[in-house]
Amino acid sequence: xxxxxxxxxSGIEAIEITQYESFLRGNILKYVLRAPYKGSEYEDLxxxxxxxxxxxxxxxxxxxxxxxxxxxxxxxxxxxxQMRNEWDGNYYDYYRAGMTKTFDEVVFPDxxxxxxGDCKVC
Length: 122
Hints:
This protein is an all-alpha fold and 122 residues long. It has a domain at 3-67. The protein contains five helices and no strands. It has helices at 14-18, 23-38, 41-66, 71-88, 103-107. Helix 2 (23-38) packs antiparallel against helix 3. The radius of gyration is 19 Å and the shape is elongated.
């Protein structure tokens, strides 16, 4: 077993804490806890920041959806999300996989990507 798993001053391994968290939050904690002991502290903190950004986006989306009490609107949003997931596969990985267009860019080709469709010029 590598030293970075058991080097935390508390003697607790990251897995002992992260196993009770969601995937994103668990990875945030894992990379922060092990960063000083693994050899590439900066890289691990960047990884933690990336997972944190994804978790923030997930929470923002939940907050946005919670505003809609109308079941018809909720149902339509769920349908669009399901279509998006089927198209994109993994929500966060479509650009890393080399895909050039997201679900929204294909389904809404006339929507301005610069201003999210709010401008009158585009």
